[in-house]
Amino acid sequence: MKKKTSFPQWKGFEKSPEGCLLEQTIDLDGEMGFAYERCCEYYKDFHTHDRLMFIFPRGSSSMEVRTKAPAATFKVDAFSILLVPRDLVHDDEGTASIYDTVALYPSEELLVAAAKRLGLSHQQMSSVKMDCKKIIRSEKIDRYIQEYFFDRVLSGKSADNEDVVYVARRILDEILCIVFPECRRESKVMTVASDESMVTTALRFIEANLFQELSLDLIAKASGASSSTLLRKFKDELKSTPVAYVKNRRLEEAHRLLSGGGRSVSEVAILVGYENFGAFSEAFKAKFRVPPSKVRSG
């Protein structure tokens, strides 16, 4: 699905990236601007943005960001976050087969409010806004990003949705706490309260990472359960295993993408996480009783 909402006036989005763009969601309204892009052979030439930017590669995606004045190269992957100041000239290049990246753009008002919550000085916040820096993600930030991605891309919630605003603020607070560990002692950041069932938590994780490599152990860890417990709960509530659910959802998404036209079968296979084209065709035909090429031509 290629989707552009509220196509921006901000610098940095005047042109589409080079490569085969598979998915795109851009929404720069609200206190936290949001951009998601999934692409083969991604490259965006030197450009700038009008806000501070946080870059979060997802899954197996990795990238290089090269800056001018000062000249530097930053290698970023799913274990790291890159903070890029506003108006810093830089380019972006995917270094994995699939570029799959979320970028967030906090407003000045959001930054000021976060600094106040965390007791950060003007000098500390100036260093965040002026210096390009790479930081290591925490498990907490991964959970927040997964939830934010689920809400903005998969659920289609707007920037001013109460839940979306809440998670956006938690993301920003956690990033600042990673940059300035001393602020944790003064932080009044609330933890995300959740009364979700184990299976619901697992489903949210799966849907937010549907096209990434997912194993039973990984899904169980994200849902806070052992593999055997999650497997039992999944079978009780959904009459399926987590792995079977993932396979079925990927094929459903593939059918939707092919029905919409505009993409080849091989592109869709890659998009939904199949590296082996033959395996994708066999699985698709087994589920829908027709080969994927028939759906696309039909």
Summarize the model shown.
The protein is an alpha+beta fold. The chain contains 11 helices and 9 strands. It is 43% helix and 22% strand.
Mean pLDDT over all positions? 86
Beta-strand residue fraction: 15-25%
**Annotation field: number of helices:** 11
CATH class bucket of the largest domain: Mainly Beta
Beginning-to-end CA distance, first to last residue = 18 Å
Q: What kind of oligomer do you see?
A: single chain
Q: Indicate the CATH architecture of the largest domain.
A: Sandwich
State Rg. 20 Å
Q: Would you give the CATH topology of the largest domain? A: Jelly Rolls
Features:
298 residues, alpha+beta, Jelly Rolls, Arc Repressor Mutant, subunit A, 2 domains, nine-stranded antiparallel sheet, 11 helices, 22% strand, disordered N terminus
Q: What does this molecule look like?
A:
The structure is a single chain. By secondary structure, the protein is of the alpha+beta class. The chain folds into two domains: 168 residues, Jelly Rolls (Sandwich), CATH 2.60.120.10; 103 residues, Homeodomain-like (Arc Repressor Mutant, subunit A). 43% of the residues lie in helices and 22% in strands. It contains eleven helices and nine strands. Strands 1, 2, 3, 4, 5, 6, 7, 8 and 9 form a nine-stranded antiparallel β-sheet that branches.
Sequence-ordered SSE layout with sheet pairings:
Elements (H helix, E strand, L loop, with lengths): L17 E10 L4 E16 L5 E5 L4 E6 L4 E6 L2 E5 L5 E5 L3 E9 L1 H11 L3 H9 L2 E4 L2 H16 L7 H18 L18 H11 L7 H8 L3 H12 L3 H19 L4 H7 L5 H12 L3 H6 L1
Antiparallel strand pairs: 1-2, 2-7, 2-8, 3-6, 3-8, 4-5, 4-7, 6-9
Helix pairs in contact: 1-4, 3-4, 3-5, 5-6, 6-7, 8-10
